[in-house]
């Protein structure tokens, strides 16, 4: 009761300061209470800031009154990172979407609310390029990408979000304004808190401006799609290509199960006359001579290793090849009410082990599990489809998922390569670290956010997303 009174008082003080930026209508609160994980949290106010300084004001009050603050960009997190499970306020930064491009220094300064594909298209107008491309780029924000260290398809050649962040401005939990890093190409000045904030999922600070490095826009690209007799042959690409001096900008794998599911969904065979087989979507980009040199070597490699392959001769043909990769996910969604998308990552030479382990899980647990993803990075998406209304199937899926996570760690991998921990991976994250490592993490959180107001519950508190019903009872709507 005391806690609720304090929060109520803080919200009314905030309303005095920020007026109608503090939204309390039930439709707004409902919208702010969940993200891409689709588990409902609860919030007493959604604060739609439109000036950077307001973030400092919000945090000062929140810290003083110990009100939880969940920062939100577009809310596309697949792990529940932006779900307010401990009530309090949702800090919506989507309106902080200023964007300034410095062509001379090849740098972009953006508000956290800039949508990633907008940044990319503005940069491209100047012949520049911002490569990280999560599949959600048309709606997710650059602030969310920094907070999750987002990846995507092109990371195999260009790297992840972290590789482009030069500086971050923002606010500490107590409302103090800070800038970590500078708009310089190098930075070796004392502790690198910028890199600590990247991937910290809104638990260590709130980002209000991001300075990003841009590169030259690649002028040519070629797209290939190949089918292989086995996973071993398909996945050998990630090891062979560096020896052959091929640097694909995209190297995507789809297992046989995914292709089967896709063919059932579309009613069309990807390669006519060929039963479902593991496939690779490969793209080369760069200057014309380099793309053509690498295309020659790749064509030779595909002729030798694949059962069949196609090369796109036009943008339209490239788009047709891309459909195979894109429709895999849509096809899987049709199979069950829930699709858990795990984004595990293992060393390149352990991918075959991972994929054959998934095959054994499929048989042992009699489950629908599809694998596709960024095999150039060892970052494979393992998708579990199950009906959450079916208790027995849910139990089997959780057991299979738990075995998968153990296997990933045993293979020297990590339980998340790009989505982060949020809520969904909290049951497994502790196993990734030894006691000393875990204590360091906890002490960093304690030091930067002593009152624990920033995105509480995320990373450190075990939350089982498959126990949705139980959680719904535990959660309550604040008045
Ligand atoms: C269809 C689909 C495809 C996807 N594909 C990919 C993919 O290919 N690669 C990939 O990496 N991810 C992917 N994602 C996941 C998601 O889009 C990313 O995690 C993205 O980075 C989240 O951005 P957002 O703006 O939606 O952030 P939100 O979901 O709003 O927030 C995500 C996390 O960041 C924190 N946060 C947000 N903004 C800030 C800020 N300014 N300061 C501090 N903390 C902040 C939040 O508190 C939360 O913990 C996909 C999601 C969907 C729905």
Tell me about this structure:
By secondary structure, the chain is of the alpha+beta class. It folds into 4 domains: 2-94 and 462-474, Uridine Diphospho-n-acetylenolpyruvylglucosamine Reductase, domain 2 (2-Layer Sandwich); 99-216, Uridine Diphospho-n-acetylenolpyruvylglucosamine Reductase, domain 3 (2-Layer Sandwich), CATH 3.30.465; 218-334, Alpha-Beta Plaits; 335-432, Alpha-Beta Plaits, CATH 3.30.70. 38% of the residues lie in helices and 20% in strands. The protein is built from 17 helices and 18 strands. The chain has helices spanning 2-18, 26-32, 52-65, 116-125, 142-148, 155-158, 193-197, 231-235, 237-243, 256-266, 288-305, 315-333, 351-365, 391-410, 426-429, 435-448, 468-474, and strands at 22-23, 45-48, 69-72, 89-92, 99-102, 107-110, 128-129, 165-171, 177-181, 206-213, 215-216, 220-227, 250-254, 279-286, 308-311, 338-345, 368-374, 379-386. Strands 15-12-14-13-17-18-16 form a 7-stranded antiparallel sheet, with helices on both faces. Helix 1 (2-18) runs antiparallel to helix 3 and helix 13 (351-365) packs antiparallel against helix 14 (391-410). The longest helix is centred in the C-terminal third of the chain and has 20 residues, at 391-410. The radius of gyration is 23 Å and the shape is globular. It starts with a helix and ends in a 5-residue tail after the last helix. 49% of the residues are buried. Residues 472-479 have low confidence and may be disordered. Bound molecules: flavin-adenine dinucleotide. The site of flavin-adenine dinucleotide has 35 residues, from strand 3, helix 5 and strand 10.
